[in-house]
Design brief:
two-stranded antiparallel ribbon; alpha+beta; about 15% strand; about 90 residues
Length: about 90
Amino acid sequence: MLVTVTSKGQLTLPKDIRDQLGLVFGSKLDFQVEPDGSLRARPMRRGAADLFGLLHGAVRTASTVEQMNEAIGQHLAVDDKRIGNP
């Protein structure tokens, strides 16, 4: 399969290859030049380190069991009032 390198050094992998390798936006490939001059590319699989920062946002402290129970109780009380239970 023929692929053209752009003036910026970029190339586009054909969809058939991306699908076969399971590549999606943001996937990484490891390229190696073999002693015979051929190019070897292999997809890098995601590890635990790649997940760091995935759920970034405001830092929150963990709730205690008592705090969770209180929040559940408040929610149920509001729900009971909404449906007309005393």
